[in-house]
Write a structure and sequence with these properties.
107 residues; Rossmann fold; 4-stranded parallel beta sheet
Length: 107
């Protein structure tokens, strides 16, 4: 599968997340990997991925990057509802911000 021009967000930097990130990058994807962990194992995986030109963020998840990705991959151990909730919160914040900017007509 060619992923040229496709943005890929990978949530989780364990064995499966690292493998998915490498595969997506090898196929030409613009890959972002995040993990809430900052332990030694996560740091080691992050260094290897970073050396391969993959964008890595430890200690947090950039919801904007995840919500804007064409493909989102996450560890099968993670609850899909948690991922959905993270993205939903981001979308709701954007909608609320735009609503505040709208002119209000009082009649």
């Amino acid at each position: 599968m060619e992923l040229n021009g496709v943005t890929v967000a990978v949530i989780g930097i364990g064995a499966s997340g690292s493998a998915a990130a490498r595969l997506a990058a090898e196929q030409g994807g613009d890959v972002y990997v995040s993990d809430s962990r900052t332990d030694e194992a996560a740091t080691a995986h992050g260094a290897l991925l970073g050396d391969a030109g993959i964008s890595v963020e430890l200690g947090r998840h950039d919801i904007e990057r995840i919500a804007g990705a064409d493909i989102v991959e996450f560890n099968p151990k993670r609850d899909p509802q948690e991922i959905t909730a993270m993205v939903a919160v981001k979308i709701l914040k954007e909608v609320a911000a735009r609503m505040i900017e709208l002119p209000i007509e009082l009649t």
